[in-house]
Design brief:
By secondary structure, the protein is mainly α. The chain has helices at about 15-30, 40-70, 75-90, 115-135, 145-165. About 65% of the residues lie in helices and about 0% in strands. Helix 2 runs antiparallel to helix 3 and helix 3 runs antiparallel to helix 5.
């Protein structure tokens, strides 16, 4: 009896594995992090990390704006992702002055590759890097902020996937 041909499976992470990773991170955070302990040290850590996360998201938003200005043909593809990054900035903003972004480049000095494919790859790398930083920060912040970081990190990983897989 002949076996059916193997199904074609695309390379890269599947939507299900991205969602499972996000859910696992949220469960880990919910189980391991302690809500604000009430001490001023925890509050200052939270405020500092929220400000840095807002600044990092603002830097990413500026990258999206630079790519959109250089490659208006990508507007339909990038506008929904840019809108989510703008929502992340708002989610992290709490009225304090943002801390310096972790990026070594000044946000006003964003350079955009000449080719659309390279510009998308650059955005995907920025999303992936920021998602990695946020995932690392989960263990250092109180539970409420950790859940927000986990959610935004999962969104960043999904953005990176969409930016790279959609180009194929």
């Amino acid at each position: 009896m002949p076996y059916p041909p193997p199904s074609r499976t695309p390379s890269g992470p599947r939507r299900r594995s991205l969602l499972a990773s996000a859910a696992g991170a949220a469960l880990l955070v919910g189980c391991s992090a302690d809500p604000d302990s009430g001490n001023s040290g925890g509050a200052s850590v939270t405020a500092r990390e929220r400000a840095r996360a807002a600044r990092d998201s603002q830097g990413l938003l500026e990258r999206y704006d630079a790519v959109l200005a250089a490659h208006p043909g990508l507007s339909g593809r990038l506008r929904p992702l840019r809108a989510q990054v703008a929502a992340h900035v708002r989610a992290f903003t709490d009225g304090t002055a943002p801390a310096p972004a972790r990026s070594s480049a000044s946000p006003s000095a964003v350079t955009v590759p000449a080719g659309e494919k390279d510009a998308l790859a650059d955005l995907a790398t920025a999303e992936r890097t920021l998602a990695g930083w946020r995932a690392k920060d989960l263990l250092e912040v109180p539970a409420e902020l950790a859940r927000l970081l986990a959610s935004v990190a999962a969104a960043g990983a999904a953005h990176a996937y969409l930016l790279t897989e959609g180009a194929k």
